[in-house]
């Protein structure tokens, strides 16, 4: 199928691409589900937020920073017991998704928090003056108004995850990056490496364009 | 309208005993028996940061009567914004009491306060519309928050759009509107939950003069039609002149002068108020004119007098008769006829030449006619 590669490698390539898709999209979905409430909590309890509370804000911020500052390759091995607890195994694509999701949660929570901060404070004040509850302000004002920023944050996270997923090979996660290393580097097949790189570039380009298009679609400014 | 230009009433002996023109605007006299719509009592608000605490409100009390448009004017930092935000408790005063429509806001808990806020509309300088919602959805937003069913929301929006003249823009987003249109949406949104009180936070300060006029007349017309009480803050005295019934002037967290707009404009007491007033109606004596006046004859003096006509009296007759009676030369330096709200007034500056005693007598005589005469310095600031 890919003319310059042996047929067996084409199959491997397809399988690896599927694994990469699974790892990136799977963990980004988890990251959005966990990261958005976390970001709302960070925003609400932050200084100048809807209900400032240092006791809630600081530990969460600290935890997020800790995850973000641990190199991903180390994070992956360091949390193996946790991975085994969640995924039932510490090897394979599913297992790789646990550290990937964790890193993505920390990453996206900060990006989401920043996007929420971009929302004009005047709009929040207007909602308060109308008698909106805190929950209403968060769900009906902040999130819709921050939507373009939130979508951009998801795009950035997806792209970063493509890079992270290349390290998933260390725990047998597979994926295109892993294939590139094993065949392209360790077996001296530069054409495999080049193919992987090209596919990844196209993949990232596609993600970015899709993200930009969505941002434009939701942007009413 | 311009009664004071008509029949000379100078010869009328009754005029000598008449009190100062009562210039009564029949509807909006001083707050009468009706309880005030908004009552602020001894509000204090301090901002404690690093360094010395800043007293944004230093014991402010004022009452707004139902149905009136009450203006609070002041420079930035005077505390007017804090004061307005204390009315719906967006900001909580450190001490003092806020009562709106008979309900003591400062005594309410969170939930009751949210409920009370739904009865108070607010309009903002920068409109504060939700950029992700259309005009119609913005107007419906307060109703959505209050849990009003969709069909009712839609009916209310359909009522409000023509009121603010935005039927055509129903499905536009705020970014597609001009400043004036955005503020119309802001006003419609503020009116959506049928409030009895409307707070305007520098509602026209981001708009050009023409649009400002449009928005102000919209505010006045909704007040008339919907029987609203309006409290507005502004740094522009022209806004006060255009629509307010009463005004309070604020400086350094205190109300330094308050009263009917006509009175404050025609007889400002505090120097700051005078400066505000002169911004709108200009100086009584245009700068540079005094230098061009002829010097007084030996033994005589030159005095600059400001004469305010408010109510029925005649300008010409007063000047010529005073001149004859007291043997003075009266030189009209400037004069203007204007109206504040619905009330006309005339303001004239005279250079009086003659013996000091005669000038004093003439002044007393004119005051007896019900004119407001004051001596102004030769160096108008």
How would you describe this structure to a colleague?
Chain A has 221 residues and is mainly α. Chain A has a single domain (7-218), classed as MetI-like (MetI-like fold, Orthogonal Bundle), CATH 1.10.3720. Helices cover 80% and strands 0% of the residues of chain A. Chain A has nine helices and no strands. In chain A, helix 1 (7-45) runs antiparallel to helix 7 (134-165) and helix 7 packs antiparallel against helix 9 (190-218). The longest helix of chain A has 39 residues, at 7-45. Chain A is elongated, with a radius of gyration of 20 Å. Chain A starts with 6 loop residues before the first helix and ends with a helix. Chain B folds into two domains: 3-23 and 284-376, ACT domain (Alpha-Beta Plaits), CATH 3.30.70.260; 38-280, P-loop containing nucleotide triphosphate hydrolases (Rossmann fold, 3-Layer(aba) Sandwich), CATH 3.40.50. In chain B, helix 12 (315-326) runs antiparallel to helix 13. Chain B has helices spanning 14-17, 80-87, 110-117, 135-145, 150-163, 179-191, 209-226, 237-243, 261-266, 271-281, 289-292, 315-326, 356-368; strands at 38-47, 54-64, 69-73, 95-100, 103-104, 120-124, 197-201, 229-234, 246-251, 254-260, 301-309, 329-340, 343-354, 372-376. With 381 residues, chain B is an alpha/beta fold. In chain B, the strands form three sheets. Chain B has a six-stranded mixed sheet with strand order 6-7-8-3-9-10, sandwiched between helices. Chain B has a four-stranded antiparallel sheet with strand order 2-1-4-5, with helices on one face. The radius of gyration of chain B is 25 Å and the shape is elongated. Classes of the chains: A mainly alpha (221), B alpha/beta (381).
Q: Write down the Rg of chain A.
A: 20 Å
Distance between the ends of chain B: 32 Å
User: What is the C-level CATH assignment of the largest domain in chain B?
Assistant: Alpha Beta
Low-confidence stretches of chain B: 1-29
CATH superfamily of the largest domain in chain B, called what? P-loop containing nucleotide triphosphate hydrolases
What is the arithmetic mean of pLDDT of chain A? 93
Q: How do the helices and strands follow one another from N- to C-terminus of chain B?
A: HEEEHEEHEHHHEHEHEEHHHEHEEHE
CATH topology of the largest domain in chain B: Rossmann fold
Q: What is the oligomer described by this structure?
A: heterodimer
Class by alpha and beta content of chain A: mainly alpha
Largest interface: A-B, 21 and 28 residues
Main CATH class of chain A: Mainly Alpha
Helix content class of chain B: 25-40%
Q: How does CATH name the architecture of the largest domain in chain B?
A: 3-Layer(aba) Sandwich
Q: Regions of chain A with pLDDT < 50 over 5+ consecutive residues?
A: none
**Order of SSEs of chain A, N→C?**
HHHHHHHHH
Percent of residues of chain A in beta strands? under 5%
Annotated CATH homologous superfamily of chain A: MetI-like
Give me the secondary-structure category of chain B. alpha/beta
Task: Report the C-alpha radius of gyration of chain B, rounded.
Answer: 25 Å
Keywords (chain A): Cell membrane, Membrane, Transmembrane, Transmembrane helix, Transport
Membrane topology (chain A): Multi-pass membrane protein
Organism (chain A): Roseomonas populi
Family (chain A): Belongs to the binding-protein-dependent transport system permease family.
């Amino acid at each position: 199928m890919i003319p310059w590669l042996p047929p067996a490698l084409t199959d491997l390539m397809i399988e690896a691409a599927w694994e990469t898709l699974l790892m990136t999209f799977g963990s980004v979905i988890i990251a959005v589900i966990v990261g958005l409430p976390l970001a709302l909590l960070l925003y609400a309890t932050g200084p100048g937020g809807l209900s400032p509370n240092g006791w809630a804000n600081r530990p969460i911020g600290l935890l997020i920073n800790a995850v973000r500052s641990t190199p991903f390759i180390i994070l992956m091995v360091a949390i193996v017991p946790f991975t085994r607890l969640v995924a039932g195994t510490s090897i394979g694509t599913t297992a790789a998704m646990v550290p990937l999701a964790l890193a993505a949660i920390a990453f996206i929570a900060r990006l989401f928090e920043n996007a929420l901060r971009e929302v004009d404070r005047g709009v929040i004040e207007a909602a308060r003056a109308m008698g909106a509850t805190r929950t209403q302000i968060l769900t009906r004002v902040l999130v819709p108004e921050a939507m373009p920023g939130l979508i951009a944050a998801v795009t950035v996270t997806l792209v970063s995850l493509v890079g992270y997923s290349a390290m998933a090979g260390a725990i047998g996660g597979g994926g295109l990056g892993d294939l590139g290393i094993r065949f392209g580097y360790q077996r001296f097949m530069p054409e495999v490496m080049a193919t992987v790189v090209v596919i990844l570039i196209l993949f990232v380009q596609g993600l970015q364009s899709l993200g930009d298009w969505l941002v434009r679609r939701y942007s009413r400014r | 309208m311009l009664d004071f230009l008509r029949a000379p009433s100078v010869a009328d002996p009754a005029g000598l005993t008449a009190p100062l023109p009562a210039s009564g605007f029949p509807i909006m006299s001083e707050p009468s028996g009706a309880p005030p719509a908004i009552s602020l009592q001894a509000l204090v608000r301090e901002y404690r940061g690093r360094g010395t605490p800043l007293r944004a409100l230093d014991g402010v009390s004022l009452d707004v009567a139902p149905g009136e448009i009450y203006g609070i004017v002041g420079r930035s930092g005077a505390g007017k914004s804090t004061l307005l935000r204390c009315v719906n408790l967006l900001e909580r005063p450190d001490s003092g009491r806020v009562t709106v429509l008979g309900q003591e806001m400062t005594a309410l808990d969170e939930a009751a306060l949210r409920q009370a806020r739904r009865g108070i509309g607010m309009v903002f300088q920068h409109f504060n519309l939700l950029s992700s919602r259309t005009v119609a959805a913005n107007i419906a937003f307060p109703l959505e928050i209050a849990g009003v069913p969709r069909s009712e929301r839609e009916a209310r929006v359909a009522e409000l759009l023509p009121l603010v003249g935005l039927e055509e823009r129903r499905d536009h987003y705020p970014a597609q509107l001009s400043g004036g249109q955005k503020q119309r949406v802001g006003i419609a949104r503020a009116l959506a939950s049928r409030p009895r009180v409307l707070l305007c936070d520098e509602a026209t300060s981001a708009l050009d003069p023409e649009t400002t006029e449009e928005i102000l007349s919209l505010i006045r017309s909704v007040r008339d039609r919907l029987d609203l009480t309006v409290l507005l803050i502004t740094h522009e005295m022209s806004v006060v002149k255009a629509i307010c019934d009463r005004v309070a002037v604020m400086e350094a967290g205190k109300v330094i002068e308050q009263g009917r707009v006509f009175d404050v404009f025609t007889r400002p007491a505090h120097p700051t108020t005078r400066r505000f007033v002169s911004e709108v109606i200009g100086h009584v004596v245009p700068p540079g004119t005094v230098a061009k006046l002829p010097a007084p004859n030996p033994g005589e003096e030159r005095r600059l007098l400001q004469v305010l006509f408010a109510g029925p009296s005649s300008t010409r007759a007063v000047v010529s008769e005073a001149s004859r009676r007291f043997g003075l030369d009266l030189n009209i330096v400037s004069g203007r006829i204007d109206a504040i709200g619905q009330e006309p007034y005339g303001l004239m500056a005279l250079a009086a030449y003659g013996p000091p005693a005669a000038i004093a007598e003439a002044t007393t005589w004119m005051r007896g006619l019900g004119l407001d005469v004051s001596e102004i310095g030769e160096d108008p600031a």
